[in-house]
């Protein structure tokens, strides 16, 4: 019986992308590039300046937490696979091979893996990055399986890093591990493909793979706000009633399945990065800011007296449902100086069932920098590669 790595390698080698797959790849390329460009002035850009291309571009592409998400597997697919493909000279097919493997590995790992505290973007990301890089480098199916096995030692990352530079850096490490593994396999390194099976079992995954369907099963969610995906729904819900809030907000009761707030580990954030992983701050920024943009997730914004007061007004109540960030719906009540307000929401803007329009994508790109729409107009994998090399030159 073929190992998981061999089955995935065969699937990746035989992949023939259709028009919808290629459209998803192009959108992912542009979304990832736009978010990376938005981080040009972030402190991490200098900190990570001496990392190899794949690691550096993945880290800066994730530090703002504005990149896309595969909801079913709770993995940030494109911020791993796009930088890897760019760094190794690949194209849309290499991206789709790596993205498809990452989605399927993430699904095999399952919600129990994520809810146990693993950062699935990194655990599923390292072997998937090996496939993306290996496909770009022209590896055979046998070599791809070997590369995945060689990436297993780097398939780690934990949620304790959320709210620090560690989160984006460990994503960069996973991306670079995949490049290294593919290069070693290309050079003739050997490994037992069943190492991936053993690793999957050790970290609580299953050996069940569904290789049918589109390249990326379930599609990808595009973020509308630059923060953890678990905050997108409550922010969007509150924005529907924000204009009706009057005077002092005395209490905000949020009812949502426990699974949907798993990564929101900072109840009392004091920094902008911590604010990106805080349900109470999702409430605060949704009510205080006309639009929760990058300015809403700075240290200064989180430290606002009005924001800190709202943090203390939030009450969280868990409802049934425990298998994903979009399980069930969010139900919010706001007690203020007028009649109590009530709102419910199941799918936020940008979710796979509510894909962004061209206008919404254009608005997001503009928010990432006034020059970004022009920079990415008509861009392909070659032009984005050169743009990132120019924008984020390696220090060494």
From TrEMBL:
SUPFAM superfamilies: 2-methylcitrate dehydratase PrpD
Pfam families assigned: MmgE_PrpD_C, MmgE_PrpD_N
Protein name: MmgE/PrpD family protein
Gene Ontology molecular function, alphabetical: lyase activity
Residue span, MmgE/PrpD C-terminal domain: 225-372
InterPro entries: MmgE/PrpD_sf, MmgE/PrpD_sf_1, MmgE/PrpD_sf_2, MmgE_PrpD, MmgE_PrpD_C, MmgE_PrpD_N
Boundaries of every MmgE/PrpD N-terminal domain copy: 58-196
Domain of life: Bacteria
Stated family: Belongs to the PrpD family.
Gene3D superfamilies, A to Z: 2-methylcitrate dehydratase PrpD (1.10.4100.10)
């Amino acid at each position: 019986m073929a190992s998981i790595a061999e089955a995935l390698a065969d699937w990746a080698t035989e992949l023939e992308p259709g028009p919808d797959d290629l459209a998803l790849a192009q959108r992912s390329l542009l979304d990832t590039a736009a978010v990376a460009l938005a981080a040009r002035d972030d402190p991490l850009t200098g900190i990570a300046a001496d990392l190899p291309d794949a690691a550096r571009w993945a880290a800066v592409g994730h530090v703002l937490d504005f990149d896309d998400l595969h909801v079913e597997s709770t993995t940030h697919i494109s911020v791993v696979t796009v930088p890897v493909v760019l760094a190794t000279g690949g194209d849309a097919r290499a991206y789709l091979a790596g993205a498809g493997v990452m989605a399927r590995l993430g699904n095999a790992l399952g919600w129990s893996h994520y809810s146990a505290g693993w950062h699935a973007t990194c655990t599923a990301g390292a072997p998937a990055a090996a496939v993306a890089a290996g496909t770009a480098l022209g590896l055979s199916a046998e070599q791809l399986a070997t590369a995945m096995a060689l990436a297993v030692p780097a398939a780690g990352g934990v949620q304790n890093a959320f709210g620090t530079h560690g989160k984006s850096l460990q994503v960069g490490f996973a991306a670079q591990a995949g490049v290294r593994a593919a290069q070693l396999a290309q050079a003739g390194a050997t490994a037992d493909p069943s190492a991936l099976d053993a690793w999957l079992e050790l970290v609580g995954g299953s050996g069940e793979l569904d290789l049918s369907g589109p390249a990326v099963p379930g599609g990808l969610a595009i973020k509308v706000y630059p923060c953890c995906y678990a905050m997108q729904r409550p922010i969007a819900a509150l924005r529907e009633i924000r204009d009706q809030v009057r005077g002092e907000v005395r209490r905000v009761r949020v009812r949502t399945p426990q699974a949907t707030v798993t990564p929101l580990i900072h109840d009392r954030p004091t920094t902008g990065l911590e604010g990106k992983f805080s349900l109470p701050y999702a409430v605060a920024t949704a009510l205080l800011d006309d639009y929760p943009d990058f300015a809403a997730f700075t240290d200064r914004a989180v430290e606002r007296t009005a924001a800190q007061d709202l943090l203390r007004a939030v009450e969280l109540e868990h409802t049934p449902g425990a298998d994903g960030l979009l399980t069930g719906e969010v139900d919010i009540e706001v007690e203020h100086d007028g009649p109590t307000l009530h709102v419910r929401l199941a799918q936020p803007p940008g979710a796979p069932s509510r894909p962004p329009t061209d206008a919404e994508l254009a608005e997001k790109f503009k928010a990432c920098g006034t020059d970004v729409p022009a920079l990415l107009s008509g861009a392909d994998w070659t032009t984005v590669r050169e743009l990132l090399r120019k924008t984020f030159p390696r220090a060494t």
